Every structure is written in C-alpha cells, then in structure tokens.
Give the backbone structure.
Amino acid sequence: MGLKILTEHINVPGIETLEVYRKHGGYRSVEKALKTMSPDEVVEEVKTSGLRGRGGAGFPTGMKWSFLAKPEGVPRYLVCNADESEPGTFKDRWFMEKNPHALIEGMITSSYALGANTSYIYIRGELLFVLRILEKAIAEAYAAGLLGKNILGSGYDLDLHVAPGGGAYICGEETALLESLEGKRGNPRNKPPFPAVKGLFACPTVVNNVETISSVPWIVNNGGAEYAKVGIGRSTGTKLISASGNINNPGVYEIELGVPVEEFIYSDEYLGGIWKGKQLKAVVPGGSSVPILPANLILKTAAGEDRLMTYESLADGGFVSGSMMGSGAFIVFDEDQCIVRNTWNYARFYHHESCGQCSPCREGTGWMEKVLHRIEYGHGHQQDIDLLVSVAKQIEGNTICPLGDAAAWPVAAAIRHFRDEFEWHIRHPKEATAPGAVYRGQLDTVTA
Amino acid sequence: MAKVTIDGIEIEVEDGTTILQAARKIGGDVVPPAMCFYTSLKGSGGKCRVCLVKVTQGSTRDPRPMPKLVASCITQVQDGMVVENTTNEDVLNARKGIVEMLLINHPLDCPICDQAGECSLQDLSYEHGISGQRFEEERRTFNKVDLGPYIQLHMTRCILCYRCVYTADQITEKRVHGVLGRGDAAEIGTYIENVIDNDFSGNVIDVCPVGALTDKTWRFKNRVWFTKPMDAHRDCPTCSGKVTLWTRGEEVLRVTARKDQYNEVEEFICNTCRFDKKEVKDWTIEGPRHIDRNSVISANHYELPVVNVPIVPNLPTSTKKNLPQE
C-alpha cells in the first residue's frame, strides 16, 4: 500500500470527534500556518506541491489561488464544493462522513492562505446526515477556539458555515453553486468574470473540492516539496478513487498517482479483479461525464504503453483513444454489460439535470436521450447513430457551462468505441431487446 | 478605445463594448443574430447561443485565439481583437445546429401564430436554419395560460430567452413570474397562476422574440403584414407615450412600443397606452413607421411612393416589342 495522506487515520474509532482527531496530529497545520507562516507562504507551499483540483478539471490549485483578486476593503471567500453528484463518485461523502475535522482543518488553513474571513461548505442536499456530522464538528472547533474570533491567539478570524443545496447536479458547477449559495436559482453564470474576480456576492472567491482542501494540511505540515515527490510528473500526490461496477472490491481507495491501471483493477490490494472472473469490457475512468474506454485502450495507450492512473496518462491520445481523470470515479463494466443501455442511462441523467438556461444543452440532452431510448428499446434507425454524433457535436463547446460537454462526451465516446454494438441493436431489435441480451462482438450472429 | 476587426471590417469602439454591439455599429451582414440579448435589459444575453462567433485573435497584447466559440453579446472587445462571424465555417455550422435545437420543440404553428411576420425565430430560421427535420420525437407542449386580462402565455412556443423575466425585474416594481422547473421542462410561470398586474406588464409582450407572450386585445384580429404601422404619440402621465399604432383603415388594431431594426424597443410604454387607447382620436399621428427589419412587414412598404420607375425595366428588346407602346 502506498502513502496515505488523506486516509491515514480514517478508520480510527472516534476520529470524527475533535479529541481523537487532535490526538492523531489534527489541527497541527492550523497552528503551524497561523503562528509561523504568512498567507503567501502557504500559497507558495501549495504551488510547490503541484496539487491539482480534485473535483474533475484538474486545474493546479496553487495557480487558482494566486489568481484571486485582492482589492482593498472587499471581503474574499473560500467555498468548498461538497456538492458531489456525478454518477459513480462517492469519495467526498465518505470522507466527510468519516473524518469531518480533516475538511474543517483544511478550510481553516486554506482560508488563512486566501485571506478569507468567512467560508462556506456547500454540501449536496441529499447528504443531510453528513451536514449534521459537519455541523457537530464545526461546533466542536468553535468551542476549542479553532474557529471564530482570534483563532489560537493569532488575530485571525474565520467563520465557517455549511449550506445545503437542493440536490441539483448543476450546482456542482462553481458559478451555479455560487448562485445557489446566494439564494438564487442555480443557473451557471456567463464567464468572464470568473469567480476569482467576481464570485460569491460579487466578491473574489475561490471554489475548491473537498479532497483538494483536505490535502492542504498535509502540504503545510510536511512541505510542498515533500508532496510533489509523490506521484509522477505533473500528477502529484494521492487521489481518492471511488471504484464501482463489476469488481470484487468496490469502495473508495486512496492511491498514489501513477499506479498502473492494470494493477489497480486486478491486484488484490485494490479492486481485486473483475467480479466472478469475467472479462473486462470497458471502463469509465473519471465519472459519468468522461469518455468510456474499451478494455484494450484502458490498459494500454494507443502507443502501446501501460496506462497509469495519472491525469496525463489517462488523457493520452486525446478523445480519440484516451479519456480523463475527472473526479476519480472508476466505473468498471464486465462482458455482460450493455453499452447502449448504459449510455442511455447517462444521457437520461444529463437530460434530467440540465438547468435549461442555454438552448443547445436544454434541447440537445433531451434529444439524445430520446434517440438512445429508441435504440435501446428496438426502434432505432440506421441513421440514428450519425444523428447522435451530430447532436453531440452541436452541443459540445457551445454551452455556458461544462454540463453540455459532459452530456455530449459519453455519447460520442460510446459510439466511437462501440459503434458495432449500436448497429447490432438497430439491426436486430428483437434479439437486442430480449432480457439479458448482450452484444458479444459478432454483428450479424446472435449469441445471447 | 479599442480597435476590433469583424469579418475583415475594422471599427473603433469604446472599451467595454461587446462584440455584438461593435458589429451592430458596422451593420449589415456582419451582425450576429440575437434571440436572448436585449440592449436595455441588464444581465440579458448568453443564453440562446445563436450569436456565437470565433475570436481568432484575442487582442494585440495576447494574440492567442479563444479556444471555443464565444457568445458575442456578452464578450467584451479588446484592442486588436479579430472576430470571424459569417466568414467562419465553424460559426455558421454551430449556428445552424443551435437554430435546429431551438426549433425541435417549437410547435412551428406560424400559420396561426400572432407573432408570425415579426418573429425573430422565424427570421433566424430563414437565414440560418436547415431545411430538413431530423427530430421525430413528440414535441414538448404546455397549456395556454392567461396572465391577467391582457397577456396570454403560450409556453409551447417559448425559447426561454429570459427577456420577460429581466423586463419584469428591471422595469416593474414586483416580478411575479419567473422560470420554474429545469432542463427542457423549464417553463415561464407565475407559480400558482398568479396574475401579472402592474402598469408596465405589457412590455413583456414586446420583448418576447417569439409568440409565447401575446396581447389578448390583438390575438387573431389580423395578420401583422396587413396592418399599417404608424408612429404616434400622446401625452401620457406614466410613460413617454411614444408608440407605433398598427392600423387597418380607421381602426387601431394594436399599439406597441417603437421597435428598431434589431427588434428592440426604443422606449417602454405603459399598459394604458398599449391596451386602452385603441382609437385614432386618442393619438397624434406622426406618420408611417419605417420598418427596417428584413421582415415580411416591410414587403408592404407603403411609405415610399413609387415615382418614375419603368414598369418593365430591363427586358430584352424582343420582348419589349410585344408590349403596348406608350
């Protein structure tokens, strides 16, 4: 097992209480940062660490922090994006539920680095029980003088609030999140201006994922250079992976970036291989919005090299033969899974979650879902496949926020890599709609 | 001041101008279409995506092209920016795609729609749409809703441009309608079928680019191209009183605000002017309204008398011989 930065003490009984958390070295980073470091020094450490946003886009956190505008007399905010709703992703919920103080510690240290005196954790509405856990932990931190006025006698004030969303996927997009936090309808904003200039209540704001913020205390304690030693190249540190699908050991794993995908799937230390010893068919490596990859392309890149669990290696080959790290939701499909049905399921999700503000996404997601539904239920036409490709292209890149892209990519990728399976559904509707029928690689012979 | 080049035409505009407004200063074909942007409504724009353009050079300082197509109505110009609108194949294709998206759930009931003839979506589809139809599923439909005595909402036609929401927000004291639901189930509504009741509510009809919000005093009275637009004014205590009367004979069929060539009103008018003053004697007529838009209304340009134009201008002489001599 590799180095555990986030989950070292996660299974200690009572770690959700302040007492046990402090006994295991908790809140050391707050003391170190507030007493011995200047805010800029903390930002510098995070920059050195090469930590990248863990929410999906993988943008360097230190750089994001240094973009924060700092006009005189205007408050700045740090907002933690805990609106984790991407299908397949469940790492943040698990982490906050188990170890709420780790996030709070990260929030204090990060807020200090950014000069924010009020910070928010925007949590997904469905996770009300986690919200209660966080509120309890925050109350403990207030009582211990780690939050509120004059933290640990350093003269730094911070108020931390938890705000629940209403359960909309779109509110995980940072500007929609800010709108929702302001009490408005969660519609993404037009950019620019970016939140770093005009965010929450029109003040400079940084929005970071739970995992990103929770990684900051370790970086402050051990130094950015130490963090940068973990991982490969520009993918430094560790990453929480939510593994699900047809595998022997589903769950959340903290891996050092750079583990080979093959090892990750088949080693007993991690996923333990495919369930019931079946064949691997495909993997969605980063949450439902990233392109799906067939077995041969997920294990090896198009150039024949081993694919590694890093931002670069998973994206190798662009969208032709690669995918994305995304939020780290590793969804595995065995040979008995139907790609058409799965693609329809994703399309249905994005159709349901589109905010309806801009026309390509509002209309296009519904259109794709209807066409995929038709193909899955045996009413497809031959030209539907090209229609889907064309609609996906019409949406991609033309929308206000990335939800349009997220809806278009999985459909385009499924057709790119599994076109014959779609054709089989269209050519043999009767066989394809039979219960349990799966395409097994022969276009005109039915084996199911 | 910033120098910006749009489709090869250079123009100098003030800092903070958007690409769309700069293009409108040039005028003609370089102006991107706009369905949701409305100059006088703050915050509007960026939603319909038909005004997408390609920025091939960001500015003199940073000449990199912008990676994606940008919405010209909300993107501000920078000095040295180079924009491609009609000269860029990607832009035209993207626009075609978006017009198709706007139309898939639109009922296309133009023959019975009061907006037909002055509908932005109609004009847009003529200019940028594709002629085929690839959407074969059932269209989204809603029931008609009466928003008070004057306005009818026919949500099926709506393209969710949010203009009426911004109008109610910015020129009336209290907004009672808004967008409910999300995705393609989003709709304009007053939640529990409230009545929109204030002095300026009628303006939502004028800002609506399609026939979703219609004037109940005008519905099914006539086709817009059979009526004659007249500029008129009256001494109104609430608004400027400057309107366009749409008349047929002595009858005033409809009163609207004066709209410019981009279908935007010059000045918002009050409900009294719009709905209650429907007689010629209520108004001081200024003269015929010039309709500049590329619209079917302008087919009846009656304001320019046709003088000294040969009836058969350029026919070959052989044909001319057969015509009766003057």
Notes: Residues 233 and 312 of chain A are 9 Å apart (CA to CA). The mean pLDDT of chain A is 92. The first strand of chain A starts at residue 77 and ends at 82. Chain A has three domains: 18-229, 232-334, 339-432.
